[in-house]
Specification:
The complex is a heterodimer of chains A (about 300) and B (about 375). By secondary structure, chain A is an alpha/beta fold. Chain A has helices at about 30-40, 55, 80-90, 105-110, 115-120, 170-175, 190-200, 215-220, 225-235, 260-265, 275-295; strands spanning about 45-50, 70, 100-105, 125-130, 180-185, 205-210, 240-245, 250. The two termini of chain A are about 15 Å apart. Chain B folds into two domains: about 1-240, 3-Layer(aba) Sandwich (Rossmann fold); about 250-380, Rossmann fold. In chain B, helix 1 crosses helix 2 (about 30-45), helix 1 packs parallel to helix 6 (about 140-155) and helix 3 (about 55-70) packs parallel to helix 4 (about 80-95). Classes of the chains: A alpha/beta (about 300), B alpha/beta (about 375).
Chain lengths: ~300, ~375
């Protein structure tokens, strides 16, 4: 990939496993993420989904927009249910089916973290994807520990916008020394697709943290959903990188950074920010990038 | 030939003979010996199963659910706080109609800390859609585990095999360990009606609107009702192969009784001794042991207790604000009957206080003296 901005859809198969008729909001990043994830994995997959927007998106019984097997699980059990699915398949002599745990940021950073840590420590063999829209969007935009510093949500109102930094889930996963962890973005589907392909071939726990833009919760016009996700990467607010065995860092996108303001100003959830607050965010992003560069040895 | 083994290990051998394929568990006293033995049986290859040592009981049940959903026979064991932590997942298991079998060693709930026996943990899970069997002996425990898989797989509901902490879990008794080949014939491999299968994709547990939801819950209740006859059928089959049966309930010397004790678990064994003594003295006292708590065997209880003037229910549990849970269920089984016994409700043996022969005699004497219960609850072993 190198330093050039990546092109869309090169080498991505035309087969669709997510059909029309789903219930997602217009411009939903989480839906785009699922579409590409399944294109990479193919039909030999079992998906485990805990409570999150994706509980609703496939549609209500007896309909489904997904052409693959799906198990709806309790909020905090994406990882632990996937562990059981994999163990059951192995006992039934099926070593080829990919097990995919698919959870939001609430189900990953917050309520599901214990189960995820357990599966990571045991290095259970499945792919865990956290589609991160940076708040509890399905219940109406409440803050999670994935919500960025100073963000408005319905539980962090403008007068008391979120005072804490976004939890660094990637460092938590790296500390577990899992074989593969990567960030991804719905604005870079080819990069995401390649990471999914890579994850499919690795044994053990694979963790992919994909930024999934959310027009509804980010107070963002739906046609700007991909633009916002792209700017998150280009401003280095959400850098694209991989971590192998918790040690080997590779940064996938290293162009000159765009100012964070370009990303922030698109979204209503940041419209209350003052210039000095934006400056603090810019400084924080710069420091986080330096730390990442150091780890990558760049 | 009988082998002297610990009650916990009777459960473990039952799981081994049932050829469980995925075992997932988390340690808690007094359950640990069950899964320690299973980990050993997996390590030696006597049991070919995936043994998952997960980071909580919540994850233990979640992984059993995942394994069962792809058609593997799954097992876990827990107790007390562990079962309470699992509570949410118990609904997920039964709602998805997964025939998981779990052993629960009855230990009370904190605070204050107490690791000893009472039934408050499992009875707090009464409404989760799990079958519940209360075992009196190690023999009953091993036999019930094997039966439970067969019953659960027929009715597509999970089963909880319950045994008293220490009185049963840590006591060594002679046990006839069933022959493996005969168990294989009795309990063939699990063939689920529905499972997660990439070759035949389907969604399990999807959002279900009000116009379809009631029908799904109705089917669960029907399955519970059907479970009563399935339990008896499986029990009869078990009798033919292994020479033992347990029934939904067991009536002990209830003929012409003026008073019948209602018991469950190991308190039943102590009660038998006391009842024999009373019968030797010519006093007509009997005992009804309730083995199956869910589904609740109302018809069987009414049949056994027909014409009995008084019953004394010994509850090693309490529902605060109501009383003994077995007593409560028993009263409701009789509420529409013209002729019904006077129900005396006794709470005893909480948090590992022994239910002694003296306690049981006190219960019998007190019940015989009274025409009708003057109190909603009696506390025969309360220190005043």
């Amino acid at each position: 990939m190198g330093s050039q901005e990546m092109k869309m859809k090169r080498g991505i198969p035309e087969e669709e496993y997510l059909m029309s008729g789903h219930l997602a909001c217009a411009g939903c990043g989480a839906t785009i993420a699922m579409r590409y994830a399944l294109k990479a994995l193919g039909e030999d997959v079992i998906v485990v989904i805990p409570a999150c927007c994706w509980t609703i998106i496939p549609g209500a019984f007896p309909h489904t927009a997904l052409k693959v097997s799906l198990y709806h699980a309790a909020f905090e059990t994406a990882a632990s249910t996937a562990t059981g699915v994999k163990a059951g398949l192995e006992m039934k002599g099926d070593s080829t089916t990919t097990v995919l745990a698919w959870a939001g940021d609430g189900g990953t950073f917050d309520i599901g973290l214990q189960a995820l840590s357990g599966a990571a420590e045991r290095n259970d063999d499945f792919i865990y994807i956290c589609y991160d829209n940076e708040a509890y969007m399905n219940t109406g935009i409440q803050r999670s520990s994935a919500t960025p510093f100073l963000t408005w949500t319905t539980t962090t109102p403008v007068r008391q916008a979120k005072e804490e930094a976004k939890k660094n889930i990637m460092e938590i996963m790296a500390a577990h020394r899992i074989p593969y962890a990567a960030t991804a973005s719905v604005a870079y589907p080819e990069d995401f697709f390649q990471k999914m392909k890579k994850a499919k071939e690795i044994r053990g726990l694979k963790f992919i943290h994909i930024l999934a833009s959310c027009p509804t919760g980010w107070r963002l016009p739906s046609q700007l959903s991909i633009k916002a996700a792209r700017l998150a990467a280009l401003t280095r607010i959400f850098p694209l990188y991989e971590i192998e065995n918790g040690e080997k860092y590779t940064i996938n996108l290293k162009q000159e950074p765009r100012p964070v303001q370009e990303y922030l100003k698109l979204q209503g959830r940041f419209s209350h920010l003052t210039d000095s607050e934006i400056e603090v965010i810019q400084e924080n992003v710069g420091r986080a990038w330096e730390r990442l560069m150091k780890k990558a040895g760049d | 030939m009988k082998t002297v083994i610990e009650g916990s290990h009777a459960v473990s051998y039952g799981v081994m003979l049932s050829r469980a394929e995925v075992i997932s568990a988390y340690p808690i006293t007094p359950q640990t010996h069950i899964v320690e033995k299973l980990s050993e049986l997996c390590a030696t290859g006597e049991l070919k199963a995936k043994f998952l040592m997960v980071e909580s009981e919540h994850s233990a049940m979640a992984s059993c659910i995942g394994a069962s959903a792809v058609g593997a026979r799954a097992f876990t064991a827990t107790s007390s706080q562990g079962l309470a932590l699992m509570h949410e997942l118990l609904h997920w298991a039964s709602g998805a109609r997964l025939p998981i079998v779990m052993a629960n060693v009855n230990r009370t709930l904190a605070p204050p800390w107490n690791i000893w026996c009472d039934q408050t943990d499992s009875l707090s899970q009464r409404d989760t859609g799990w079958l519940q069997f209360y075992c009196e002996s190690s023999q009953e425990a091993i036999d019930t585990v094997i039966q439970a898989y067969k019953i659960s797989e027929r009715v597509s509901l999970p089963s909880m095999v319950v045994l008293d902490a220490f009185y049963l879990s840590h006591t060594f008794e002679p046990v006839d360990i069933p022959d493996r080949e005969r168990v294989d014939r009795f309990l063939p491999p699990y063939e689920p009606k529905y499972k997660l299968d990439p070759k035949d994709p389907k969604s399990i547990g999807s959002l279900t609107p009000p116009d379809l939801f009631t029908e799904i819950k109705y089917q669960m209740q029907r399955a519970m009702e059907e479970a009563k006859s399935v339990i008896l059928q499986v029990d009869d089959e078990y009798l033919k192969v292994f020479g033992r049966r347990y029934g939904l309930v067991e009536a002990y010397r209830c003929e012409d009784a003026e008073l019948v004790l209602i018991t469950s678990g190991t308190a039943s064994s102590t009660s038998r001794e006391v009842i024999d003594r009373y019968r030797d003295e010519g006093k007509a006292i009997g005992m009804l042991k309730i083995r199956t708590f869910r589904p609740f065997p109302s018809e069987e209880i009414r049949r056994v207790l027909k014409g009995i003037p008084k019953v004394a229910v010994i509850d090693r549990n309490i529902s605060y604000g109501m009383g003994g849970i077995f007593a409560e269920e028993l009263r409701s089984a009789f509420c529409n009957e013209e002729v019904r016994p006077k129900v005396f409700s006794y709470i005893a043996g909480l948090g590992g206080r022994d239910i002694t022969q003296e306690t049981i005699s006190d219960v019998i004497e007190y019940t015989l003296e009274q025409d009708r219960p003057e109190e909603e609850i009696f506390w025969p072993d309360l220190r005043r």
